[in-house]
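Hello again,

I reread your note about wanting to compare the complex against the isolated chains. To keep things tidy I'm splitting this into two emails, and this first one only covers the full assembly. Below are the input lines as submitted, including protein chains and any nucleic acid or small-molecule components. They are followed by the predicted structure of everything together. The single-chain runs will come separately.
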Amino acid sequence: GAVVSQHPSRVICKSGTSVKIECRSLDFQATTMFWYRQFPKKSLMLMATSNEGSKATYEQGVEKDKFLINHASLTLSTLTVTSAHPEDSSFYICSARTRLQEAFFGQGTRLTVV
Amino acid sequence: GQQLNQSPQSMFIQEGEDVSMNCTSSSIFNTWLWYKQDPGEGPVLLIALYKAGELTSNGRLTAQFGITRKDSFLNISASIPSDVGIYFCAGPPPGSARQLTFGSGTQLTVLP
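Full-complex prediction:
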């Protein structure tokens, strides 16, 4: 299947700092990528849809100024958690979909804000 | 919003047993996807279904796209310890070229 690479896999940061997470589609072009947040033992919660060359579309309740998304190329989307606080600690996962509507996921990023 | 009802929520089985889980929707889906997620990892696509009635296998896994297009099931035969994980069904709601809707997941535990 297609490969989506997410980096870093784990990050620990101090409260008030910003963290950038990268999501790359390695062997296909993705005009649309998706960012999810997952709480322990829960399903994936869509945060936003990242659109190449245009603004991201955020789901209701997700602060766009807090979770900055940039999709500068057909293979890269980034999520920046700004002024992180302990409640932002979570597992963040990106995905990209192929033309067959199959979604492939990155490895996920475990963010811990201390 | 659109929801997928996935059951069971969790299962504890003996190694070697077969497992079955399913998802239902109140509306029609054109694609059904089944994923497995290991702890601390992103979901991995197991099987993709595109046509009503389609039955597809991937090793010991078999999934079917229901005739009504409102349900799908996943079977795992002769379970082994590495089958442990969370299994999710998912699909793009009709009319949506965007995000997937996910089931709530089935936590599978395989006892030796």
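For quick reference: Chain A is about 0% helix and 55% strand.

B.
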